[in-house]
Amino acid sequence: MTDYLHRFDAAISLEERAGGRNAAIRAYIAQFLTERHRHAQPPSGLLAALAKDPELLAPLRQHERHFLERIRSTADDAQMATLAFLAIQGIRAMELLNTQVVNPAEEEALIAWLKDRLD
Question: Can you spell out the DSSP letters for 70-82?
Answer without folding.
Answer: HHHHH-SSHHHHH
